[in-house]
From TrEMBL, chains A, B:
The organism's taxonomic lineage, starting at the top: Bacteria, Pseudomonadati, Pseudomonadota, Betaproteobacteria, Burkholderiales
Residues of the Nicotinate phosphoribosyltransferase N-terminal domain: 8-130
InterPro entries: Aldolase_TIM, N/Namide_PRibTrfase, NAPRTase_N, Nic_PRibTrfase-Fam, Nic_PRibTrfase_pncB, Nicotinate_pribotase-like_C
Processing and modification events after translation: Transiently phosphorylated on a His residue during the reaction cycle. Phosphorylation strongly increases the affinity for substrates and increases the rate of nicotinate D-ribonucleotide production. Dephosphorylation regenerates the low-affinity form of the enzyme, leading to product release.
Species name: Albidiferax ferrireducens (strain ATCC BAA-621 / DSM 15236 / T118)
Superkingdom per UniProt: Bacteria
Residue stretches making up the Nicotinate/nicotinamide phosphoribosyltransferase domain: 152-332
Chemical reaction(s) catalysed: 5-phospho-alpha-D-ribose 1-diphosphate + nicotinate + ATP + H2O = nicotinate beta-D-ribonucleotide + ADP + phosphate + diphosphate
Name this protein carries in UniProt: Nicotinate phosphoribosyltransferase
GO terms classed as biological process: NAD+ biosynthetic process via the salvage pathway
Keywords: Glycosyltransferase, Ligase, Phosphoprotein, Pyridine nucleotide biosynthesis, Transferase
Family: Belongs to the NAPRTase family.
Enzyme Commission identifier(s): 6.3.4.21
């Protein structure tokens, strides 16, 4: 549903590695997994998102003639290799956690099994898609937990990092529990409910606030939200009372007012009193302006009479944690498990599954991370989503994903739902078969090194 | 050069305001300016970027038939209004600071002068384009200042916020002084020099590091960069020495090695020693991994023998400051200056110009912010870039922009080039005519309110 992105939106090394594989005839089956190395500081959980766009990308994967021409002319690749890219398609399989699933550090949320060149080429864009939506959904889930049952609208398009970030953050935040967005294209693409108010400029181009309010209300007689903080918030609320009554006589309804600056709780209380005393208890109060989960929790705790919130920049950019420490790493090639041993960046090898257990109260009690050959108690979280390059028919629609996310938050252990870090983090156990596999891989790498060292010494 | 973005990638309120303007017949000339309210915490300056994409957007501005159909069917807009959008084009003018120009809080970097509906509709996307590239260029300029003359390559596509963020951050960082990027599409679109190394997976699919190094070098005999931290960095460097000599005998050159984990300065020193002692002083050392301007400054200060850096996530997401406190605000409508008075968000009214002065040493000494009717000493920074909806012919190409940015950094007062906040911030003076205009606007708003209040009381 999003626009197709050029396959050249990738790192140069993907293409140079592919040519080296081509030169060496290396095209056995490779297995890569995407996971987050550790939870962002202060966070208790993450929420998987972005799978739908990854599958779109894999299904549509191909080089255009213009891209192939550019590769031919750029001086880095030989013609036989570029020719081999002409018919390149993604023919592999994908297993993944459904979008909206809660997950933790080291747990793979997506596995790609495909011929090496395909599985390697897709790395950059898969990370680019999965990390962003997962980051935003994880942040938005916190905002939802803080907001209790208040209306939540994504207002962040303008300060999102470019077009796709704006569009996909509308999707990711809706998935995680927002009620809608102001981003029109997200409404057109996915049917996400749209919300909007008015800008200060609308007030300013009129000679007075009351004229602006009246004009807007007449254009939207069934429901409109009026912005009342351009000059003096309470004065605007007082001026609104006679106008709202006059318009009501003509069947025109003012639905809400919006506050956008100053002490939102104090303004909301005064505006609520003015509207109530003016006989307008039906006009609700909507607030925006530099909000995040912490600010929302304060406003909710203070009992501020605010019915809904527009949350933008700090949610869409995940401002406190604007990236995840995530990776898409080789786990197996040509039937052998593989492992990276770099300092601080070592990975668990092989194809993995996550099994999740629940208590009698339905809350999550712990996960087991193990190899796919092993079976552990609990529910396996990674499921097949693509075979032979085609997505399976059972992919959920966005509203079903949103319901799943909602259910996941309800299954979170209570301390993990708090904004503050839980004293005891969620328990993810590494099963013995996975530890054994890691040791086997280490032994094999060590044996390789010793063998090569002795060969080296013999030839030296 | 980037893909056209749907005009529905906007906030709903832009369209609802447009319909209200249509209903009221309000289409006089409006003037909006984009500016940053205050510098991000700890920063000494910002660098303007993104103008080229804004002009692309304005020149191509139109609704497609599918978008118009959706607007008709969505239930919020009447047919006469949607019909009026069919022929909507941007016919206004734009003045702006050239990309690469250093600027400060409250200084407009772009002004749009157009019929109200056009000038309003473009708000969301203009902010979305200008804030992102300006944010990245400003961060990348700091990285460049910290890196002295080391090679700097953008590695951030994978963790950028979506496709456009990845692509445009390659452009913004190049503009601000990076030497190139790993993002292939940025090479194709703008001719930005491309750099790449290899991934750990390339090592891991081979049975040993030396095989992997040799295969890669044979595919890129003129120049290749080998990643040496997959298992043990120094051991890899030692194994590389005999291989490099063997390959050199066949005319194959290894250009560089890459470090990507651990204590980069310590590894670089040891690897440099191993390579030098092995008779390979020509192989340079390239480092990557969680780098930003502070880390780079440390490595440079420590004299680490590193020739170049790959800087990714923290630069592309501007991780310490992932958004700017920026706005696109109405300054004038129908010939009258306008001003927002909201608490903490008041704006300076009217069309403005920035005049910059320089000392005898060529360094910037201070700016004056004033009305366009006024003339102050110094060089005016905003220049015409678009008239009647068409860009002017004299727009600089990207390499010229990059040279301008380089010259700007060289003209920065020395304390502002430091990473730490300067004790004395750069001096931006508000000229008396601008203060007078603000007072006039305030008096007009006040008079309006009093007049309306008395009208209200008469009718109450």
């Amino acid at each position: 549903m999003t626009e197709r992105t050029s396959l050249l939106l990738t790192d140069l090394y993907q293409l140079t590695m592919l040519q080296a594989y081509f030169d060496q005839g290396m095209a056995d089956t490779a297995v890569f997994e995407f996971f987050v190395r550790k939870l962002p500081s202060g966070r208790n959980f993450l929420m998987a998102a972005g799978l739908e766009q990854v599958l779109d990308f894999l299904e549509d994967l191909r080089f255009t003639p213009a891209e192939l021409d550019w590769l031919t002319g750029c001086g880095r690749f030989h013609r036989r290799f570029v020719d081999s890219l002409r018919d390149l398609r993604f023919t592999g399989e994908v297993q993944a956690m459904p979008e909206g699933t809660v997950f933790f550090a080291d747990e793979p949320i997506l596995r790609v099994v495909a011929p090496l060149p395909q599985a390697q080429l897709v790395e950059t864009r898969i990370i680019n898609l999965l990390q962003f939506q997962t980051m935003v959904a994880s942040k938005a889930a916190r905002v939802r937990l803080a907001a209790a049952d208040k209306l939540l609208v994504d207002f962040g398009l303008r300060r999102a990092h470019g077009a796709e970030a704006g569009l996909l953050s509308a999707r990711a935040s809706y998935l995680a529990g927002f009620d809608g967005t102001s981003t029109v294209l997200a409404g057109m693409n996915w049917g996400i409910p749209l919300y909007g108010t008015m800008a200060h400029s609308f007030i300013q181009v009129h000679d007075g606030e009351v004229d602006a309010f009246e004009h807007f209300a007449r254009s939207y007689p069934k429901a409109c939200t009026l912005l009342i903080n351009t000059f003096d918030t309470e004065a605007a609320a007082r001026r609104l009372v006679p106008l709202a009554k006059k318009l009501a006589g003509e069947g025109i309804t003012i639905q809400a007012v919006r506050l956008d600056s100053g002490d939102l709780a104090a303004h909301a209380r005064q505006v609520r009193r003015i509207l109530d005393e003016g006989g307008l208890p039906g006009i609700s109060i909507f607030a925006s302006g530099n909000l995040d989960e912490h600010r929302l929790a304060e406003l909710v705790a203070a009992g501020a009479p605010i019915n809904g919130f527009g949350v933008g920049t700090r949610m869409n950019t995940s401002a406190d944690q604007p990236y995840l420490d995530c990776a898409y790493k080789l786990q197996e090639y040509a039937g052998l498990a593989r492992r990276k041993q770099s300092e601080g960046k070592a990975t668990w090898p092989g194809r993995k599954q996550v099994y999740r257990s629940y208590g009698a109260d339905g809350l999550m009690t712990g996960d087991v991370l193990t190899t796919t050959d092993d079976v552990a108690p609990g529910e396996p979280l990674l499921v097949p989503v693509m075979r032979q390059g085609r997505r399976l028919a059972n992919m959920p629609v966005l509203n079903a994903v949103r319901e799943h996310a909602h259910a996941e938050l309800a299954r979170l252990p209570v301390p993990l739902r708090a904004l503050a870090p839980a004293t005891a983090p969620y328990c993810v156990t590494l099963a013995p078969p996975l530890r054994q596999l890691a040791e086997e891989v280490d032994r094999r790498i060590q044996a390789d090194l010793i063998m090569r060292k002795s060969r080296c010494q013999q030839t030296a």
